[in-house]
């Protein structure tokens, strides 16, 4: 089933738009606090389309993600009592409980790990605020964890450059379904281990 190829083509068109960095910054900020789409879906094609801009795009994505994480932290810190009933009734209930367990087990390291986990990062930012985690360690862990993730994506796209685009185009549906399978397995394991 060709689901990812049309999305990939659209992402490549958006990546070449003159306002694409603004859209990437907005997406990155929103994803860290309330929006469900990760910025990798824009960062990867943008870095692929403009390999010479890959590091700048990774920095932009990192900093706006950290700022969005601080907004998520504020949501958890100021509004947890109001949003907790909704959160516990939503599809984020199990990830939220898992994030709380990770914070109890690993403390601030959970924020770093969150950058690479199948649990949405916004769940960790809101949970950190709800737990009133010290702000400086939270911010530093966010900067390192998110930066590591986004610079890895940018590095892979920069390394692959123009020669990677036709290869990705040919195999994007297989890659997309493989990522879905990995996320599903990760989510299942996360749920089973709680």
TrEMBL record:
What GO cellular-component annotations does this UniProt entry give?
plasma membrane
Where is the chain membrane-spanning?
A: 57-80, 101-119, 131-154, 175-193
Q: Which UniProt keywords apply?
A: Membrane, Transmembrane, Transmembrane helix
Question: What positions does the domain VTT occupy?
Answer: 53-156
Q: What's a Pfam family this protein contains? A: VTT_dom
The keyword Membrane is annotated on this UniProt entry: yes
Reply yes or no: does the keyword Transmembrane apply: yes
Q: InterPro entries attached here?
A: DedA_domain (IPR051311), VTT_dom (IPR032816)
Q: What sections of the sequence does the record tag as coiled-coil?
A: none
List the protein's name: SNARE associated Golgi protein
